């Protein structure tokens, strides 16, 4: 029996998306098409080989009033003749593809994160769009994008928003998970530590306001006063990099290193291998890939209580510490790991079991089962 042809169309060739395309081959004849390889907000080492199943569409670009577009996409549709078209996001160009696909009786699936109440791409608002704050915009979304065969929210928060705020048919709405590239992380040894060892705290997320890198530096400043055998490793990308560097210099904080020497996506996991505690005091996140990576690596984890979709793999005081957004809460939680280093092994063992299902091979099966359930295959 021939496999169904599916194509996923999205903005950036994120490495985890590219890897996921090849995991899907067990169930589908899948291709992933992107408007650009990496955007301005991503480091150059995000650029990985695309292979023969992924591509950057020809004649693609981005315009202020239109957003992403690609004229080469139409030639690719004629060539590949997909049975199912997956569209990443409610873009204007995706409306055109949606209507064209339905003319030819193709199945169409929209995938999207929760829609935040933002004015532009750089807006760091934590609020989501609702009927109260975005009635006109959500009415337009419903009018333009209703009639698809399936709407997949990236997590249950998005699923709820699609039904209750946008008004899509609840019988055609479900949720799924982000793909995660975790295999290399499972090869890391669990951390067997003594109190006198060096403890490396990792802030792996981009330096943007809602992930609070300056808060992280303040936490480390308190930790280092009592434990000079600690280090802070920080992502070097993001608009707050200069502000973070200036704060470190002004306060003369020692043992802080920016991760500006990563040379490839394939070697990124080594940063986790040589780190001990992940810290993420996010004011909002829709479930964060760095948490899965840290869990698969067996690290200690200290995160905020403002992160979606972590209930099944993050159990406070069992395999991590989940904190209020208070400086003292984060400081105390990190100290628990330093003073009780045996927690690294017990937390790490539990975490690895809990995120096992997020390996690409398992997420691919999840997508296959969903498409079967909704009559896509």
Which terms summarize this structure?
7-stranded parallel beta sheet; Rossmann fold; alpha/beta; 377 residues; globular; 36% helix
Summarize the structure.
With 377 residues, the protein is of the alpha/beta class.
Cα-based radius of gyration, to the nearest Å: 22 Å
Which structural class matches the secondary elements?
alpha/beta
What's the CATH class label of the largest domain?
Answer: Alpha Beta
User: What is the fold named in CATH at topology level of the largest domain?
Assistant: Rossmann fold
Q: In this structure, how is the largest beta sheet organized?
A: 7 strands, parallel
In terms of per-residue confidence, which ranges show pLDDT below 50 for 5 or more consecutive residues?
A: none
Beta-strand portion reads 15-25%
CATH architecture of the largest domain: 3-Layer(aba) Sandwich
**Helicity, as a percent range:** 25-40%
**N-to-C series of helices and strands:** EHEEEEHEHEHEHEEHEHEHEHEEHHH
CA-to-CA gap between the ends? Answer: 12 Å
Strand order of the largest sheet: 3-2-1-6-7-8-9
